[in-house]
Amino acid sequence: MARYIFITGGVVSSLGKGLASAALGALLQARGYTVRLRKLDPYLNVDPGTMSPFEHGEVFVTDDGAETDLDLGHYERFTGVSARRSDTISAGRIYSNVLEKERRGEYLGKTIQVIPHVTNEIKDFLAIGEDEVDFMLCEIGGTVGDIEGLPFFEAIRQFAQERPRGKVILMHLTLLPWLAASGELKTKPTQHSVKELRSIGLQPDVLVCRSEQLIPDRERAKIALFCNVRPDSVIPAYDLKSIYEAPLAYHRAGLDRAVLDAFQISPAPRPDLSRWEDVMDRLTHAEGEVRIAVVGKYTELEDAYKSVSEALTHGGMANRVRVRPEWIAAEDLEQDGGTHLLDGYHGIIVPGGFGERGTEGMITAAQYAREKRVPYLGICLGMQTAVIEAARNLAGITDAGSQEFDRDGGAGRCTPVVYHLKEWVQGNRKVERKPDDAKGGTMRLGAYTAVLKSGSLISRVYDGATEIEDRHRHRYEVDVSYREQLEAAGLAFSGMSPDDRLPEVVEIEGHPWFIGVQAHPELKSKPFAPAPLFADFIRAAKEQERMV
Ligand code: GLN
């Protein structure tokens, strides 16, 4: 049976709970333990799949096709453990399960209440897979005191009571604000947030205190005294230059030791931190810099492309070069002379996106990269717009477009070389979709295989592999019936679904490096195992740097 670590936050949001959880997972692994990380989100959406990237940042997709919070991306990047559908739950999902059971008559006439029915549903979820790992780390979204969070906190309280003693601990993150006028670090908000936790029956075992200033021992002792936590379990967490410093920084601050101590694990196994030492060595000993233009539609919010930006960093680490991404709003390229915004970059990326806005700018970016022979990586929408560009400007289909951008559903304005996907094969099952289906969870989601053409650039990128598997999230698809015409014009279909019906990878023949992929390779990239497409894209960009 796994030991459980619940991670909560207080005082303010955005304290880096996800990062602290991920770093703790990595540190427990470094001590030889197996871990799994989970996220419990108190909002009422069933999953974040229908939320705008401006609301919630990137939607992280798992191998088994769940649309999840971007914190699951941190968990994977730090531990390498692939998240599953059962590692993410929202209040919306919990209530929807409870209501479905009620409609099926499963509660045998009982009155349905938050306690015990909602809390039981949460506890059942927490227990999934408990025999598989040594430690289960469960992060609760939001801050203590939020109304939506209460059923989750109550469920944790019950869960801890029902387990054998010493099998569940609580780690709480807070902020120590710095008052410049009086030159003081303030501990009162932390005291209040712990008081709030204690009023609902929860006592933290470990307190992680974010602070911009050094926390003096005196203040640590005071926090320990007022919050009923041992002094060496008050862990300072200072701002870091890179998130990848977090495992080593938290280790130096004593986090993993405090956690093992709270479980009374003694003596603690010695940690092997070489993986993180190597990561830091690559980050700090990089030579030169490549500038990458990322042409997207949610560029005001970097979190909307979290995994792309992390994968670029990993690609830089693989090549020991610094990567400077610059976010360019695709719409700006649609202005007169807008293409000049792309001058001087060593590589161009067009990441995923939804809807028509900015797509003409993305098409312009693909054309620029193709004609000026700048390395280009098109991801999902970035592949679809690259295909439209090639159809228009290489194959002479001048009105080529996508049904997604055509309000008439492809009937009037364009020749839809990208169409609304209606059926595909998943394993040995046929999946069918209609344009008026509900929006939530109906895309082609999760890991699918692409069969690669031998001798192609993509197969070289993957060391001669003939098959790759990456995660998908799309409703539209390049129409394979244009394959011959586009290939004759110079756009090779170098990766296909195993049944040869869905184009998965395209590349421009004779171009130094131009690839479009329907999947999202950024989702599987790790600092210690960079996604091959990003590593090779940055390698090609670095060659450009030499040429400039
Ligand atoms: N909007 C496109 C589709 O649904 C691309 C999706 C994406 O980029 N993730 O097919």
UniProtKB/TrEMBL annotation:
Swiss-Prot/TrEMBL GO biological process terms: 'de novo' CTP biosynthetic process; pyrimidine nucleobase biosynthetic process
Entry keyword set: ATP-binding, Glutamine amidotransferase, Ligase, Magnesium, Metal-binding, Nucleotide-binding, Pyrimidine biosynthesis
Positions that bind ATP: 14-19, 71, 240
Residues engaged in binding L-glutamine: 353, 381-384, 404, 475
Record carries keyword S-adenosyl-L-methionine: no
UniProt KW Cytoplasm keyword: no
Glutamine amidotransferase domain residues: 302-539
Enzyme Commission number: 6.3.4.2
SUPFAM superfamilies: Class I glutamine amidotransferase-like, P-loop containing nucleoside triphosphate hydrolases
Known pathway: Pyrimidine metabolism; CTP biosynthesis via de novo pathway; CTP from UDP: step 2/2
Binding sites annotated in the UniProt record for CTP: 13, 146-148, 186-191, 222
Region described as Amidoligase domain: 1-265
Enzyme class: ligase
Pfam families, alphabetized: CTP_synth_N (PF06418), GATase (PF00117)
Cellular compartments per GO CC: cytoophidium; cytosol
Positions with a binding annotation for Mg(2+): 71, 139
The protein's assembly and partners: Homotetramer.
Role, per record: Catalyzes the ATP-dependent amination of UTP to CTP with either L-glutamine or ammonia as the source of nitrogen. Regulates intracellular CTP levels through interactions with the four ribonucleotide triphosphates.
NCBIfam families, per database record: PRK05380.1, PyrG
Identification of the protein by name: CTP synthase
Gene that produces this protein: pyrG
